[in-house]
Specification:
- With 374 residues, this protein is an alpha+beta fold.
- Helices cover 24% and strands 26% of the residues.
- It has nine helices and 15 strands.
- A four-stranded mixed β-sheet has the order 10-11-15-14. Strands 1-9-8 form a three-stranded mixed β-sheet. It has a two-stranded antiparallel sheet with strand order 2-7.
- Strand 10 (261-263) and strand 11 form a beta hairpin.
- Helix 2 packs antiparallel against helix 3 (43-57).
- The longest helix is centred in the N-terminal third of the chain and has 15 residues, at 19-33.
- The protein is elongated and about 105 Å long.
- The N and C termini lie far apart (83 Å).
Length: 374
């Protein structure tokens, strides 16, 4: 047992921790490492380690012996303070404890929280920027209106299981070289529910729940981005035996825009300029998310230059104000010129002291000659 970590260290609490502090630490770690939630390769081993520590420290007598003897307890030979069978079930075990299961052992009659749902919503670029209100329809399980969730035919009620007497579990004792090992398993007679339904509800077939299409009104906040997630509390699957409903998580997928590109709360766009506009300067019209605005282009503007339109970006989802719009100008070289335009460009080049390809070998010709060694 020398390789085992200290139980207090496992739970991250001090040796003077109260029962409530120990339980709170266990709940946090159990949610973090439960194999149904955490898919890491070592999650199951860590979960078992956390549960074993909690099983010992949450029991007054076992904790006292552990504080005195550590992992080797003389009253249990070499058995130590193991988890007593390694029963850790599914994610429902954790919810059972949170909503009345008590100590992590599954109480089949305790309220259970409903499952969470996820819905992917695709929206337009500007809908993400400015927000939107819409209705969505999702399939989910709800409590049966005929039997009110009992699963029994109206006028009847479920009976307590005679095998497990309502506990939902059967205890098995196994003799091993290290002594007797006690293990709990779901009752085979009632499938762990603790109840037997002899006459099942005709609507839900004894399940207590039915599948329905539910319409939900959604208010999309202004400024949501692609991949953002919104939680609607209580809009998930209905709970069992009075347990709370789960939540609905909406994941947004935002369509791209033909002109605008979003970067955080800022908007980026490219605007073409003619050579004359870049050289002489101009005032051009720029589309924004809400309107068209005038932008002054200084003379001598180079291609790739950025201009900022303050406050013309996306409303900040968390906080106040809006981002900016950044305009990058691209000088476009014409691909087709008339003879008159060519003459004008030649005159311009001669005034500037430049040589045209008709007066001097082209740059590419000079490169070829250099490769030939001329």
């Amino acid at each position: 047992m020398a390789d085992k970590r200290d139980y207090y260290e496992v739970l991250g609490v001090g040796k003077d921790a109260s029962d409530d502090e120990i339980k709170k630490a266990y709940r946090k770690l159990a949610r973090q490492y439960h194999p149904d939630v955490n898919k890491a390769s070592d999650a199951e081993a860590k979960f078992k380690e956390v549960k074993e520590a909690y099983d010992v420290l949450s029991d007054g007598q076992q904790r006292a012996r552990y504080d005195q003897y550590g992992h080797i307890d003389p009253n249990q030979g070499m058995g130590g303070f193991g988890s007593g069978g390694g029963d850790f079930g599914g994610l429902g075990d954790i919810f059972d404890m949170f909503f009345g299961g008590g100590g992590g052992r599954r109480d089949p009659n305790a309220p259970q929280r409903g499952g969470d749902l996820q819905y992917t919503m695709t929206i337009e670029f500007k809908e993400a920027v400015f927000g939107k209100e819409t209705d969505i329809t999702i399939p989910r399980t709800e409590t049966c209106d005929t039997c009110f969730g009992s699963g029994a035919k109206p006028g009847t009620k479920p009976e307590t299981c005679s095998v497990c007497r309502g506990s939902g579990q059967q205890e098995f004792v196994q003799n091993t070289p290290l002594g007797q090992m006690r293990n709990r398993r779901p009752c085979s007679n009632c499938s762990g529910t603790g109840k037997i339904i002899k006459e099942k509800c005709g609507t839900c077939g004894g399940n207590g729940k039915v599948k329905r299409q539910r319409k939900i009104h959604v208010r999309i906040p202004a400024g949501v981005d692609d991949g953002a997630q919104m939680r609607l509390s209580g809009e998930g699957e209905s709970g069992t035996r009075g347990g709370p409903a789960g939540d609905l998580y909406i994941v947004f997928r935002v369509k791209s825009h033909d002109f605008f590109v979003r970067e955080g709360d800022d908007i980026m766009c490219e605007v073409p300029l003619t050579f004359a506009q870049a050289a002489l300067g101009d005032e051009i019209e720029i589309p924004t998310l809400t309107e068209k605005v005038k932008l002054r282009i200084p003379a001598g503007t180079q291609t790739g230059t950025y201009f900022r339109l303050k406050g013309k970006g996306v409303p900040r989802l968390r906080g106040t104000g809006t981002g900016d719009q950044h305009v990058q100008v691209i000088v476009v070289t014409p691909s087709k010129l008339s003879d008159e335009q060519k003459d004008l460009l030649r005159q311009f080049a001669s005034y500037d002291g430049e040589e045209t390809h008709e007066q001097e070998q082209s740059f590419f010709d000079r490169v070829k000659r250099a490769f030939r060694g001329d």
